[in-house]
Design a protein that fits this description.
There is one protein chain. The chain is mainly alpha-helical. It has a single domain, classed as Glycosyltransferase, CATH 1.50.10.10. It is 58% helix and 5% strand. It is built from 14 helices and 5 strands. The protein starts with a helix and ends with a helix. One of its GO terms (biological process) is carbohydrate metabolic process. One of its GO terms (molecular function) is hydrolase activity. It comes from Eubacterium oxidoreducens. This is Unsaturated rhamnogalacturonyl hydrolase. Keywords: Hydrolase, Membrane, Transmembrane, Transmembrane helix.
Length: 383
């Protein structure tokens, strides 16, 4: 009887070990197989079609951006609920939607309409729980692509409610940390400001334009390295001091997305002129930090490795800057960034080399892989 018990225990142990090892091994094998032949594109047209097709595939089967850097015992993370986070996934999907919307094709309209049916109920409210600031980017994608804004207003109003619940006494929105938070993140600018500006325009609520613009204005006052356009990851309100590094690549991406997409939603007037001046300053600064291969780094001013999500965001940014200022130097920057992204694109059209999600202030991912956020931004960068 004792022998049987030992055998059963050994068998259970072996099964568990194989399950954990098999999960890790299959993921690594799949990743390595996908990377074979990376960057081998004969011409840009076929590359762009592959990138777009991958974005379509991912719209309904969005790859997971892990919460942790763990590449071992991934099954354990899944069982403990540490592998996937709905808020992180929300801005991955949002960027895919915005990228496909940029195509302005009949197929894109149809696929996005199907997607909206997945996230919204018949009464225009969210099907999922929306209680974090991160979801503002998803709300922006819904409202930006909706042909009937009144039909989605319940969901949009809910998003505004969430943002107001995180509006602090200094007039800035915290990163889902409530009204009494003393920390302001650069991420928040890219997530909330374009949504607030669009909401204000669509529903005739001008106070949210001022709220959107003031977020950018105040972050520039306290969250930028003096004399530069380098944003810190976050800053402490009462002490007025930075938290973590200046120039984190995706941090700059969040800043320029908040800046550019808010600008594009505004009607002509003083606020738009103010943001236009900020865009010019950012463009003049960031173009100097582009690497010779067209990339931008995980630390944009130097010291990090090339990072595809920052490069995709800056490709999109400089594309728009080119149209605003009609200066070919900005088109060249965008084109160089796209060339780099092409060199980091796998055979299935997925763009590799994106830094994983941050784990907290000053805790940056060491994993570089695919990220739907970058995929959508790359499509938005296409001329």
């Amino acid at each position: 009887m004792g022998v049987i018990i030992v055998l059963v225990i050994l068998i259970i142990y072996a099964v568990i070990t194989i399950a954990f090892w098999g999960t890790d091994a299959s993921a690594n094998l799949k990743r390595n197989m996908r990377r074979r032949g990376i960057g081998r594109w004969g011409e840009r047209g076929s590359w762009k079609r592959a990138v777009v097709e991958c974005a379509y595939d991912w719209l309904f089967h969005t790859p997971v951006v892990q919460q942790t850097d763990s590449q071992r015992y991934v099954l354990l993370d899944k069982l403990q609920g540490k592998y996937k986070n709905a808020t992180i996934q929300s801005w991955q999907t949002a960027c895919l939607v915005l990228g496909l919307d940029h195509l302005q094709s009949e197929r894109a309209c149809q696929e996005i309409a199907k997607w909206r049916e997945r996230v919204l109920s018949a009464d225009g409210s969210w099907k999922q729980q929306v209680d974090k600031v991160d979801y503002a980017m998803l709300a922006y994608a819904v409202l930006k692509t909706s042909p009937h804004p009144e039909q989605v207003r319940p969901a949009m109003n809910r998003m505004v409610e969430v943002l107001e619940n995180n509006l602090c006494e200094d007039g800035m929105i915290s990163y889902s940390q409530g009204k009494h938070s003393l920390v302001r993140f650069v991420d928040t600018l890219g997530m909330v400001c374009p949504f607030l500006a669009l909401y204000a325009k669509v529903y005739q609520e001008p106070k949210y334009i001022e709220l959107a613009v003031s977020q950018i204005r105040k972050f520039r006052e306290f969250g930028m390295y003096e004399g530069t356009q380098l944003a810190c990851h976050a800053f402490q309100v009462k002490k007025g001091l930075p938290l973590s590094i200046y120039g984190w690549g995706r941090g700059q991406a969040w800043y320029i997305l908040g800046l550019m997409d808010t600008y594009l939603e505004l009607e002509d007037g003083p606020d738009k002129l103010e943001l236009r001046s900020y865009i010019y300053e950012a463009a003049q600064c960031y173009r100097k930090y582009q690497n010779k291969d067209g990339s931008f780094g995980s630390i944009i001013q130097g010291g990090g490795q090339p990072e595809s999500s920052a490069t995709a965001a800056l490709a999109y940014f400089f594309r728009q800057v080119y149209y605003i200022f009609e200066n070919d130097i900005y088109r060249q920057v965008a084109d160089g960034a796209l060339s780099y992204l092409m060199s980091r694109t796998m055979k299935d059209g997925a763009i590799d080399g994106c830094q994983g999600d941050t784990h907290g202030i000053g805790s940056f991912s060491q994993v570089y892989d695919v990220m739907p956020f970058a995929q959508g931004l790359t499509v938005r960068a296409f001329f």
